[in-house]
Write a structure and sequence with these properties.
With about 325 residues, the chain is an alpha/beta fold. The protein is built from 15 helices and 9 strands.
Length: about 325
């Protein structure tokens, strides 16, 4: 298996990013992904350029760039430049827009427009002329571009759009995600064996299992706010009973996004208390949460569907601890699979 680290929830200056990317390579991580959300994080492209010079093996990339905040030609140019600097050690993930878009008063693009923009970026990266007859004159590499997928429609589109996908879901839904990708690929007559699919999960690791499960609850609210149909899919898998106040709390979070954007929350102890209503079973189903041994066993079960996994620590408080524990206690036990 191959493993990566997302720098989501890592709020630090560029020098700290570089130190951790170098350490990620030493710990055996195969990927280091930086977020691209201008109101929360530093600009990722200069950091990736510097990291390209300071590393030798690790693949570098973005998780996730928005097709709303940057023009498609600008994204293509930035992707290509990092690809050249890293000598091919890069891959980039595109999304419809989340925090980078909502925090400046805009909305994610509709799915049809997103598909068009991803294809446009791929055309730029192939040196194809745009509608106004100009092209990026220096491109020489068809840089890998993946799409971020969570809901059913995007999972099916991920079966054929771009060069593959980063699937953001919980481990209990790995089989479901894989099946939706296969349906989309079959409908489009695309060979999935030639594409890259990365399973991405919120992650909390602790020697105290219950503490780890409690810690992921604020992060998994993102699924219910953005893809509420996931609960129906979960019910098909686990037959979970929801507490009476579940949807009223989720609706409260949805109405006040600025206050309840928990995947970017810095007051994590407060967030954990406010999300205690989420059943442990749901939290465990939608995140990698538990002891190092728990995480190892869960990842072994994922191997049937995905052999590349990226973890996204849920809070800035425990980001480095989870990053280190995963690198030292999980990766060595699964590298050979």
């Amino acid at each position: 298996m191959r493993f990566g680290i997302s720098f989501g929830a890592f709020y630090a200056d560029p020098h700290e990013y570089l130190k951790c990317i170098v350490e990620a390579e030493r710990l055996g991580y195969d990927y280091a992904f930086l977020p691209d959300s201008q109101m929360i994080y530093r600009d990722p492209f200069p950091i990736l350029g510097a990291a390209s010079i300071q590393t030798e093996r690790i693949t570098l990339g973005i998780m996730v760039s928005s097709v709303v905040t940057r023009h498609t030609s600008v994204l293509a140019s930035a992707f290509h430049t990092v690809y050249e600097l890293s000598r091919g050690r890069s891959v980039f993930i595109l999304g419809r827009g989340d925090s980078s878009v909502r925090r400046i008063g805009l909305k994610p693009v509709k799915i049809d427009e997103f598909v068009h923009k991803v294809n446009e970026i791929k055309q730029y990266l192939r040196g194809v002329k745009s509608s106004n007859v100009f092209h990026i004159r220096y491109v020489t590499h068809d840089v890998p571009v993946l799409v971020m997928a969570t809901g059913e429609k995007m999972l099916r589109i991920a079966g054929w759009l771009g060069d593959g996908a980063a699937v953001l879901l919980g481990p209990a839904l790995a089989s479901y995600a894989y099946s939706q990708i296969q349906i989309g690929a079959k409908d489009a007559n695309v060979d999935t064996s030639k594409r890259r699919y990365i399973f991405t999960a919120f992650c909390s690791i602790s020697d105290d299992r219950k503490e780890a499960i409690a810690n992921v609850k604020p992060a998994v609210t993102w699924f219910f706010i953005n893809s509420p149909r996931i609960v129906k899919v979960l019910n098909n898998v686990l037959n979970i009973s929801l507490p009476n106040d579940f949807w009223s709390n989720i609706e409260r979070f949805r109405r006040d996004y600025a206050r309840h954007d928990y995947i970017h929350e810095q007051r994590w102890d407060e967030a954990v208390k406010e999300c205690a209503f989420i059943p442990d079973e749901i939290a465990s189903a939608l995140a990698l949460a538990g002891t190092p041994e728990d995480v190892v066993q869960t990842l072994k079960s994922l191997k049937t569907f995905f052999n590349e996994v990226v973890i996204r620590p849920v809070s800035t408080d425990e980001w480095y601890t989870v990053f280190k524990k995963f690198g030292e206690e999980v990766i060595p036990r699964l590298k050979h699979l």
